[in-house]
Design a protein that fits this description.
The protein has about 400 residues and is an all-alpha fold. The C terminus is likely disordered. The protein is about 70% helix and about 0% strand. The chain is built from 19 helices and no strands. It is globular and about 65 Å long. The protein has one domain.
Length: about 400
Amino acid sequence: MLAKIALLFFGIALWHKGLSFYGYYLLPVAWVLDGGLRRFRQTLNEPFVIGMLVLCFVLALGILWSDDPKLGFKVWRRYFAFLVFIPYLSLLNKERLPWAIGGLLAGYLGVLLTGIHQWIIMNTQGIPTLRLTYLDFSAMLGIGIILTLYLADISKNKKTKSLLWFLAILLLFIQFNQNARGILIATLISSGLLLLLLHKKEIRTLLTVMASLIIVIAVFAYTSTSFHERMAQAEHDIELSKLGQYDTSLGYRLALWDVGLHGIAERPLLGRGTGMAGSYFDKTIETYKSGLYKELLKFSPIYHYHNDWIEVGMHLGALGLAAYAFFLQSWFRTLRIHRLTPLGAAFMCFIVLLGLTDVFVIFRQNLYLILIITAIGVTWQKAYGLTSVQTENYPV
């Protein structure tokens, strides 16, 4: 019963910073009492678990050549949040699936309704009461769209299929009215990839589905005031950047990426050490390119590099980049082994594209969300469907 409550509670609590703190520790306690340590060797059979352990080990190893690992701790420690997947997956079985799914749905739908209320009634982006920015909320919508499209496609019931398609379109409509440009683009490309993989052998169906999606996107893009404003702002930011003004959303990112790539080039193999990424920016912009970016600290203090690969590369160089690539590849392998290849490819595409303009681990709630979906999907396939391990051999 403790295991069921832990799974249910975590799905709801992940959206609230205070509650998720308790959920994060309740899972390991339930895991230990449930005999999870004895099953740990079995859990290690999942490539995703190996990938996250390697990434966390390399990140911890980087402390050895860091001048002050406490710097930037708020960012780099979040990579260790992936480890919550281990107790969550280990606790799951066929009997506990309804509890996990119930917690996931209750939490997601509750936050979705709150976000709709904030958008329509309060005219506010994101959900301030839950400390969810418009970026967090848009990422949550993107993950929901990808999952809903996948479930709609595999559903055999026509009413359920229609309901899921309606929900996916509704989520996309809401996302078009959020101010997150990069995440919206990541959602659209990932959704297109998902549909392509699902119907690649059915050309007529693929063309019909793609045409319908393009029409929906065109209508939403044309009617969304928020979308037009963000596109106009992007054009304005580009023009200012050409004039040497980088105190804009896009200009700030361009400056961060420029300095970050310069820092990686200086120490390409091992990086500057875990925790040193942010402090390097503060020290470098005073002299880099004759102080071109030195006024940016007044615009916004450096928090992270708004790019997964530059962030990891600054900390750990090529070693860290290899570990992060292995981590993502291991994640995909786990989903592929359990016959979730299209969903896995779409999720990895979404994470990689989101990581081009932001750092994925900063989206704490969405990190937990996609981990829960992965664990539930793996357990569902074990309980109700054959895995690819049982049907065919995939190369490592």
